[in-house]
Amino acid sequence: MFGTYDIPDQRNLLDRTRQGLIGAPLERPESGLKVCGVAPYAAEHHPPNCAEGVLVTATIPQGRVIALHKDEVLAMPGVLGVFADKRMLRRPAQGTAGKAPVQDVRAVEYHGQPIALVVAETFEQATHAAKALRVEYEASATVPLDPEGLETEPGRKPVVLGDLDQAMAEAAHSVDLTFTTEGHASAAMEPHASVAEWQGDDLTLWGSFQMISHNVKELADSLRIAPRHVRIRSAYVGGGFGSKLGISHDAVAAAIAARELGRPVRVVLSRQQVFDTITRRSETGQRLRLALDAGGYLAGIGHEAWVSNLPDEPFAEPVTQATEFLYSGENRKLAVNLARISRVTSGSVRAPGEAVGMQVLEAAMDELAEKAGFDPIELRKRNLPSSQPGKDRPYSSRMLIEALDQGARAFGWQDRKPRPCMTREGEWWLGMGVASAARVNMLRPAAARVRLEPDGSLRVQSDQTDIGTGSYAILGQIAGEMLGVPIARVTVELGDSSLPSGAGSGGSFGASSTGSAVFRACEAIRDKLAHRLGVPIEALELRDGMAIASGREVAVIELLRGEAMEEIGRIKPGKTDKDYAQASYGAFFCEVAVNAFTAETRLRRMLGAFGFGRVLNARTARSQCLGGMVWGIGSALTEELGFDLRDGQMTNHDLAGYHVPCHADIPALEVILLEERDAPASPIQAKGVGELAICGAAAAVANAIYNACGVRMHDFPMTPARLLPKLPDPF
Amino acid sequence: MKFFDYARATELSEAIGEFAKPIAGGTNLLDLMKLEVETPSRLMDINHIGLNEISPHGDGLRIGALVRNADCAADLRVRRDYPLLARAILAGASPQLRNRATTGGNLCQRTRCTYFMRLGTRCNKREPGSGCDAIGGVNRDHAIFGATEHCIATYPGDMAVALAALDASVQIEGIDGSRQVSLRDFHRLPDGDPHLDNVLTGGEIITSVKLPAPVGGKQIYRKIRDRASYAFALVSVAAIVTLDQGRITRADLAFGGVAHKPWHDPAVGRALIGNEPSDQLFSEAADLLVNQAKGQGGNDFKIPLLRRSLIAVLREATGIGGNDVRNL
């Protein structure tokens, strides 16, 4: 199929081009607009005569809405309408759904679910009316609200190889541990928001999305109209973390109300509604079994988990994803089981799977290393397989050993005390921990248009989104590099569904996938330029607007002859996707202080070393790594969704109650970027980086806590409340 | 948000009376109005009536009710003579909030009980007589002292905990004149009417907080929290401890995050006074403190946490244990 990536591109073309943009730590071109507050986010579009919509949410965990007392609310000042349309969403769409998620808000499936939309002239009128709307329910009698102990169903194809029980029985050293992790929120800074405007049968929706080509289909299908009637615009997105992969309640509700009222409608979720209605990361229970033979090699790995979701929802937090390929061990049992409960939809939250899977695998590895008397780094290094267990395919590239070694040197790992409780500073125990990082790599279908203008400037267009990660920067860098155009003359236009379909932002695949589409479009233009210059493509060098070959130097604008050159580049995953185990790797090192009296844990310093193929922009890549580590720290120490198990309501649905790490919680973080070329991953030899730096970070913190105070924590986050009962005598 | 009328007072007399809810920094009230937990029909902006100075008062200081928290914490006299107060203020909220929040408003801030903050749940504080969903619910933030079957909420602030240790008093102005109450008596226990957070009656406002003469000693505010940034106290300890010739001569203690008011138990201080500092003495005092504590399930950890926190603070205050304490 056209654009399919079947043969690894070993040419490393971007190492031979001469513009000097690739890898350079360039600032994001839109960053000035953002810090000045003039980059318009979804809710900041103000079409004339726009009305304001506010969602009404359910106060029961399950049942039916039998009456909405609309008339009382319609009589209130400014109220224009109350909508409870069958097409409105009960659940948000999962990533890449491409079709309508579960609709019809007359039924209630979880506490806080949207059940109606109130639209008024002003936001305050709509908010007050939404709160005033009287709703009568027929509540279900018994509702499953607590996932623990519920019967489960398989949530992911299990991996069973050899005989793990026997390997455990015969092991020289083994661990058999049960961990729990609490649910997480995405909590992006920009809440989910939509402004819908109709012109005849055509809808324009300004929204906050990650994967626009899918979102168009989801929105059109929800509204029962053809996708060609839907245009989504999402030029700036204030964070997604998975929660904007699919469309949410706001988009469909705004579109329905705008159509009905004949005027634009804006719907912005409140922070509390974001927590109550948008996909969460499931809480997990995970049993880890590791069997080590007398030679210090893993003979078996067991990773069995339960997670939760709403009935029939296919997503099951894939916590075993990295366990499938990271370490050796012939005997394996990996399974994810799903409990069905009445709790807001679980779905992809940054680094679904590895974020909390690596967190416990790497904590278990630390315990095994201690039992077997290995340095934890050594245990990991000696158990890296040469091909993926059970699949017998090679690794595309793997910088794990380099990450562990270089990280250890830079961090000063040799100063770590071999046993806990050996370093005390006043009230504080100090300790160090290490963990591996691993995250699967994905190449997704993508297209991008590149246009070399007659004046030699360059335009890159795709519906690829930039959710704060640097898409604008790196796509411009790739195009400028390939075509020898200074970055100041490159314009990147993104986030508009009328443009060619990029991969979108998710699964850390945006940069390598859409970047490869840009690369291919540029290759086609390079071919044309070489042809016009009359030289073989191999001889062509493009730099600063000049084409240089065989001793000749010609301005590119001369070759253009007054006409633009335009190409659309495409990429699709192909054989390299099947033939190689592809992942990004790294290592975390951290030092913590644990207060011997109060059980407060404070991070002293943290270092991550990461290998993820070619570095496209050292600044944005580093920022992604920093952000990932902060997520890991949150997962380790503070982040947990709370639920009242009597009625299912979320008890900390805002950023005062849901504690993400903030400045005072984050000390000096250091990032080492390990350059590598991963040809099977993509034609630009790049892999995903965004999520990598979460995957295992929390384990490094847990392992450091053990090294500090001798307490093995198996329940995350490791709050003072959880740690205190296990602390040794403080005196 | 429910519609409301807004008026701006230019002098104190306009601010007194039951016809409007006073608003100063609004850092808590506005949040509650957005949630419609508070639905005043009229707001009286009192930001322009003065009361924004810190001035000498006898041997002590008078802090106007409208002095911003940031200004109070930065005041040289406060930092020199009442470091406990400056530290407690800086342990609370965020710089942006402290720039806006006022002394009087801080004392009047309301509980952050999740059920109080969420309409549709039962809460005797928000809707008297409706019940208390925090009991038997998610209550890790809740009270271990003085809770009743009607309410287990905590007073969330830090500043008032320091003021309780300092034995400050609150100056109140009402239609019938002015009165003064000890800070330790300003907030209430929930008893049977938890909708009343403090002793202010309708129409009264706080005009100032008075600090007694400086007492010196070692002054420590220790706030135990889930994260170092912006979080309410799991428990907090405010301590003023004086040593003379190896014996404790003053031990003024108050505790936050544990009750419907800053918790002050004079017996704990008395148990320390006259004694040489030791871990055994501190353990006995801490046992005395938590003797009557009662957990609700989710907050049971607060009892040992408070006990150990007090011991840690007393060790720091008296320098025993050879502690090189670094506040991280």
From TrEMBL, chain A:
- What InterPro entries would the database entry show? Ald_Oxase/Xan_DH_a/b, Ald_Oxase/Xan_DH_a/b_sf, Ald_Oxase/xanthine_DH-like, AldOxase/xan_DH_MoCoBD1, AldOxase/xan_DH_MoCoBD2, AldOxase/xan_DH_Mopterin-bd_sf
Q: Which Gene3D superfamilies match?
A: Aldehyde oxidase/xanthine dehydrogenase, a/b hammerhead (3.90.1170.50), Aldehyde oxidase/xanthine dehydrogenase, molybdopterin binding domain (3.30.365.10)
Alphabetical list of SUPFAM superfamilies matching this protein: CO dehydrogenase molybdoprotein N-domain-like, Molybdenum cofactor-binding domain
Which intervals hold domain Aldehyde oxidase/xanthine dehydrogenase a/b hammerhead? 36-141
Q: Which Pfam families match?
A: Ald_Xan_dh_C, MoCoBD_1, MoCoBD_2
Which residues, if any, are the signal sequence?
none
Q: Name one GO molecular function term.
A: oxidoreductase activity
Question: What PANTHER family does the annotation carry?
Answer: ALDEHYDE OXIDOREDUCTASE MOLYBDENUM-BINDING SUBUNIT PAOC, XANTHINE DEHYDROGENASE
Name under which the protein is recorded: Molybdopterin-dependent oxidoreductase
Q: Which organism is it from?
A: Paracoccus aestuariivivens
Automatic annotation (TrEMBL), chain B:
Q: Does the keyword Zinc apply?
A: no
**Domain FAD-binding PCMH-type as annotated: residue spans:** 1-216
The protein's GO terms of the molecular function aspect are:
FAD binding; oxidoreductase activity
Name the domain of life. Answer: Bacteria
Which parts form a coiled-coil structure per UniProt? none
Q: Which UniProt keywords apply?
A: FAD, Flavoprotein
Q: Which Pfam families match?
A: CO_deh_flav_C, FAD_binding_5
InterPro entries recorded for this chain?
CO_DH_flav_C, CO_DH_flav_C_dom_sf, Diverse_Substr_Oxidored, FAD-bd_PCMH, FAD-bd_PCMH-like_sf, FAD-bd_PCMH_sub1, FAD-bd_PCMH_sub2, Mopterin_DH_FAD-bd
Name of the protein in its database record: Xanthine dehydrogenase family protein subunit M
Originating organism: Paracoccus aestuariivivens
